[in-house]
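[recover] target loaded
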């Protein structure tokens, strides 16, 4: 099998997953990060992020001698491979946070290009995996200013919480480059996965990533709006989405209503694409409405809680104790970035409510420095047992779809509460179970809501 020497710069969830998975496909991989302590931990096989299967894969590939970690991009690209050889392909997996006015902040990418440009061997292919504005591959090539180095855009479509699975079972591989040879070299890295491969120009590859995430965001805003309409006309969103999902043009996936979409990708990418559109003098109204619908969803949840607890649409939440179940942006991750749960918590606090939160990913392990115990997030005190969140609460609000919430002892939870109300923003819990426990369950777009 043909293997390559691959450097991966940045060991966030994309970089580390890319590095470990490419190693598992037989390539020789060096992952570089500027965080010395993190590199030390990775060398010991300690993975900071919650990503199923990743720490096992890292340990396995390190022991197999195919994966190693170094401090700094410069150390990763030159002479880091056996026999002091240089990297043939360099992946940039760097943060591109939302900067001023929603424009992606490319400073990390620029700094790494600056640090490594003189060190790259002739013929190296630099691959951008980060989500970047259209035109970044061209700009990276300009910054590199090396005729003998190609720049390729190879966006990732990994979901947090199933990144390893998604990497190894991709729906497609996208490789964008103006040089066919470089594009084919990158595509060949993934050949063993047997996925459809789209070879295109760099700008189309860059836009494709935004197009995918924004389409997903639009799908969810549509579903959340439809759930609201269901409540008003007495229909049930689960039946509606099941029914439309059988249409293969729509599909069953990504149709669950919720507290709004969040995380480190969808919010950032929808804003960034809006900027791309603005800069191209294109008024992308559909995308703006997608974002506005999502922002509104948070207030809608607050209004639902208010109505449930006080019995009135304008009732006061001052000093009302509420237990929040789930604070991460979705289940299966400990990521709190742009979590709708935290945005809703902030609105509830503004409305005067006393909050207490529980999240299984934030419990930590006393005495384990790699899993510290967290006492509070964004001013929401955390407890280590869902029963404590229920204690004296006038309502419990389910904000993240952790499966473990389904099997809580709801009878005991009900017994601890001041008012037997559960607002289930994920339609996660079984309404009959709640009813049997004497609880009023309020979901989204449900007939009984
Ligand atoms: C998203 C995309 O799904 C990935 O394809 C992409 O690679 C990634 O962004 C990225 O750009 O790196 P991720 O942010 O991990 O992945 O999260 P998703 O699983 O897509 O969920 C996004 C948000 O939508 C979450 O807040 C989630 O709770 C919400 N959601 C998702 C729903 O409310 N309902 C659903 O049916 C699905």
């Amino acid at each position: 099998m043909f293997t390559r020497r691959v450097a991966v710069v940045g060991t966030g969830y994309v970089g580390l997953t890319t590095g470990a998975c490419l190693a598992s496909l037989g390539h020789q991989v060096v992952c570089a990060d500027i965080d010395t302590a993190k590199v030390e931990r990775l060398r010991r096989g300690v993975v900071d992020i919650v990503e199923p299967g990743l720490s096992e894969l890292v340990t396995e590939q390190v022991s197999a001698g195919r994966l190693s970690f170094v401090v700094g991009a410069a150390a990763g690209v030159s002479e880091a491979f056996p026999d002091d050889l240089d990297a043939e392909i360099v992946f940039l997996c760097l943060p591109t946070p939302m900067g001023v006015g929603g424009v992606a902040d490319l400073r990390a990418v620029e700094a790494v290009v600056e640090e490594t440009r003189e060190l790259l061997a002739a013929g190296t292919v630099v691959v951008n995996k980060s989500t970047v504005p259209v035109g970044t591959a061209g700009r990276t090539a300009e910054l590199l200013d090396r005729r003998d180095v190609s720049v390729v855009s190879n966006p990732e479509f990994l979901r947090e919480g199933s990144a390893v699975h998604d990497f190894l079972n991709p729906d497609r591989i996208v490789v964008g480059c103006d040089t066919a040879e470089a594009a084919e070299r990158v595509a060949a890295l993934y050949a063993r996965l047997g996925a459809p491969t789209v070879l295109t120009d760099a700008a189309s590859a860059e836009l494709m990533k935004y197009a995918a995430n924004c389409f997903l965001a639009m799908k969810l805003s549509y579903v959340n709006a439809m759930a609201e309409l269901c409540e008003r006309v007495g229909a049930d969103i689960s039946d509606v989405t099941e029914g439309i999902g059988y249409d293969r043009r729509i599909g069953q996936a990504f149709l669950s209503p919720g507290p709004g979409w969040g995380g480190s990708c969808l919010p950032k990418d929808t804003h960034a694409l809006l900027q791309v559109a603005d800069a191209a003098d294109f008024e992308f109204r559909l995308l703006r409405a997608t974002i506005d619908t999502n922002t509104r969803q948070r207030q809608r949840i607050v209004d639902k809680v208010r109505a449930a607890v006080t019995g009135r649409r304008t009732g006061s939440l001052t000093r009302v104790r509420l237990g929040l179940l789930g604070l991460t942006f979705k289940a299966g991750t400990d990521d709190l970035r742009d979590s709708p749960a935290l945005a809703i918590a902030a609105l509830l606090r503004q409305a005067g409510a006393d909050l207490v939160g529980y999240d299984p990913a934030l419990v930590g392990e006393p005495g384990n420095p790699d899993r510290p115990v967290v006492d509070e997030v964004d001013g929401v005190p955390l407890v280590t047992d869902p029963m404590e969140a229920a204690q004296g609460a006038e309502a419990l609000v389910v904000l993240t779809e952790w499966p473990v919430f389904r099997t809580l002892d709801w009878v005991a939870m009900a017994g601890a509460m001041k008012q037997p109300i559960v607002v289930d923003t994920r339609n996660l819990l079984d309404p009959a179970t709640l009813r049997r426990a004497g609880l009023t369950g309020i979901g989204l777009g449900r007939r009984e809501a």
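[recover] notes: The mean pLDDT is 94.
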